[in-house]
Amino acid sequence: MKLKLDLHDIYNRGGEIDRALRAVIDEAVAKKAPLVEIIPGKGSGQLKKHVLRFLDRKDVKALYHRVEKDKDNFGRVFVHFRWK
């Protein structure tokens, strides 16, 4: 199961972006999903930087295994989880 979050619709609303990111991470933890795909889009790169800063927060970083930036598509970020 892979969860997907597309941020195109809320790209200019910082509070909603953080809530959406938190919701998808919490959903992944609850469902023990192995992968979350976050789509900030290509644009200027500011939204992707915002997403990466969010994922780098200590409280969030403790929840996932690793982050992978898609080498073929600049506008995608994968968050991998490891469950025992």
From TrEMBL:
Lineage top rank: taxon: Bacteria
SUPFAM superfamilies to which the protein is assigned, alphabetical: SMR domain-like
Gene3D superfamilies (alphabetical): 3.30.1370.110
Domain Smr residues, every copy: 5-82
Alphabetical list of InterPro entries matching this protein: Smr_dom, Smr_dom_sf
Name the UniProt record assigns to this protein: Smr/MutS family protein
Source organism per UniProt: Amycolatopsis melonis
